[in-house]
């Protein structure tokens, strides 16, 4: 069964530091997403990416966030200057059609101290 | 913006009892998807409903999509301890070529053996 791979599984960072979360979507998928889940809460949409550009982004996805697909396989989320409230589980997901099911990665737990 | 409400937030049942979670959207949906997240895990796709009034079954799980395509339910018959986890509905409302899943808050199911 194809998987979405995320690294690292856990990242601890100092407040104000930059972090890059990495994802390798399923190879034949064209649509990529980042979601986050604060502990025990709902899964919140951050951004969608298609055809090498952002398709949609939520209010959470402000100027400190950026996404990139630097090569044919990786999809990254950068948080420029982390805040305590950025602590959450970040999930990458991919889909082969915009209306189909999403396959989620195992997530990166980000802890900002 | 689009909102997806889900109730109840928590449900504790005795093994063998039935379980139902309900989902309502503030807008008409193109489709609705259900995901299960085991404790410490990531959302895993269960099913997608597309047609008005659609009913789908997966063994002990029955999924319904309302006639107006604004509400949905998941019913589990005779729960087992393996059913433990959080069940999320996620609404998709797409126009053109892009749409994003908006998740409900989830129903956390615990099953007492």
Short structural description:
The complex is a heterodimer of chains A (113) and B (113). Chain A has 113 residues and is an all-beta fold.
Word description of this protein:
The complex is a heterodimer of chains A (113) and B (113). By secondary structure, chain A is mainly beta. Chain A is built from no helices and eleven strands. Chain A has strands spanning 5-7, 10-13, 19-24, 31-37, 43-50, 53-57, 65-68, 75-79, 88-95, 103-104, 108-112. In chain A, strands 2, 4, 5, 6, 9, 10 and 11 form a seven-stranded mixed sheet that branches. Chain A is globular. Chain A starts with a strand and ends with a strand. The model of chain A has no long low-confidence stretch (mean pLDDT 94). With 113 residues, chain B is mainly β. Chain B has no helices and eleven strands. The radius of gyration of chain B is 14 Å and the shape is globular. The model of chain B has no long low-confidence stretch (mean pLDDT 93).
Oligomer: heterodimer
Largest sheet of chain B: 6 strands, mixed
The residue ranges of chain B in which pLDDT falls below 50 over 5 or more consecutive positions are none
Beta strand count of chain B: 11
Q: Roughly what is the average pLDDT of chain A, rounded to an integer?
A: 94
What's the helix count of chain B? 0
The radius of gyration computed from the alpha-carbon positions of chain A, rounded to a whole number of angstroms, is: 13 Å
Distance between the termini of chain A: 36 Å
How many whole angstroms does the radius of gyration of chain B measure? 14 Å
Describe the biggest sheet of chain A? 7 strands, mixed
Structural class of chain B: mainly beta
* Estimated structural class of chain A: mainly beta
* Distinct helical segment count of chain A: 0
Strand content of chain A: over 45%
The coarse overall form of chain B would be globular
Provide the descriptors you would attach to this structure in a database record:
heterodimer, A: 113 residues, mainly beta, seven-stranded mixed beta sheet, four-stranded antiparallel beta sheet, 11 strands, globular, B: 113 residues, six-stranded mixed beta sheet, five-stranded antiparallel beta sheet, 0% helix
């Amino acid at each position: 069964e194809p998987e979405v791979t995320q690294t690292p599984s856990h990242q601890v960072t100092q407040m104000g530091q930059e972090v890059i979360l990495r994802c390798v979507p399923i190879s034949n998928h064209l649509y990529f997403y980042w979601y986050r889940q604060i502990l025990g809460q709902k899964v919140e949409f951050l951004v969608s990416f298609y055809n090498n550009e952002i398709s949609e982004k939520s209010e959470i996805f402000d100027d400190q966030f950026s996404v990139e697909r630097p090569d044919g396989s990786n999809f990254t989320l950068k948080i420029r200057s982390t805040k305590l409230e950025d602590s959450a589980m970040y999930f990458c997901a991919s889909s082969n059609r915009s209306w189909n099911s999403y396959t989620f990665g195992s997530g990166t737990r980000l802890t900002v101290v | 913006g689009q909102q997806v409400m889900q109730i109840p937030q928590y449900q504790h049942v005795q093994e063998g009892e039935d379980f139902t979670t309900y989902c309502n959207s503030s807008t008409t949906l193109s489709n609705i998807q259900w995901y299960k997240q085991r404790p410490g895990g990531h959302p895993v796709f269960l099913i997608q409903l597309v047609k008005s009034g659609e009913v789908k079954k997966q063994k002990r799980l029955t999924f319904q999509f309302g006639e107006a395509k604004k509400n949905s339910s998941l019913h589990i018959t005779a729960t087992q301890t393996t059913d433990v986890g959080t069940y999320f509905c996620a609404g998709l409302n797409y126009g053109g070529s892009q749409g994003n899943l908006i998740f409900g808050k989830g129903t956390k199911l615990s099953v007492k053996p």
